[in-house]
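Feature request, filed as a ticket because there's no other form

It would be nice if the structure record came with a short human-readable summary line next to the C-alpha cells. Right now we just get the raw output. Example of a typical job, pasted below so the devs can see what we mean:
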Amino acid sequence: MKVVVLAGPESSGKSWLAAQLNAHFGGLMVGEYVRHFIDHHQRDTTLADIPAIAHGQLAWEDSARARHPALLILDTHLLTNRLWSQTLFGDYPGWLDDELLARQYDLHLLLSPRTWNGAPMASAASRNWPIAGRFSRPAWSGCKSINSRWW
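Raw output as currently delivered:
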C-alpha cells in the first residue's frame, strides 16, 4: 500500500487535488475529519477540540488502512491538525508528533495558501493569510521523514 498525504491550510485545494488523484489513479480517499467535526458542532474549533479532531482523523485513516488499498490518499492528516493548532492557538498536543512518526507515509504534498474563496468551513485563520502563511516555514520543524519523500 502506498500512502499519499496532502497537507496545507483551508482552501488550498487539498480536497480537489485528492479527488483528482483518486479519479486518475484509483485507490481509497480519506477526507478531512475536521469538516465533519465543524458540521456537527456548528462553531469554530478550540484548542480543547484538537485531540478529538486528531483522534477522529486517525480513526478514519486506520479504517481505510485496514482495507489495504493499493493507494491510500489522505486529504489531510495529523500534520495539518498540528499546524492549525499551532497557528490558531500557539500550542498543540505533544502526542501528535509521536503518532506522526509512528505511521508510514510514502509521499507528502504541501499545498500553498491561496486567497480565501468563501468556503463554508472557513475559520478565522483562513481569512488571515499572514498567519496561515506560516505553514510553509516552521511547518516541518520537529517532523522527521521515515521512508518518505518530502516535496
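Something like this underneath would help us a lot:
The radius of gyration is 14 Å.
The longest strand covers residues 2-7.
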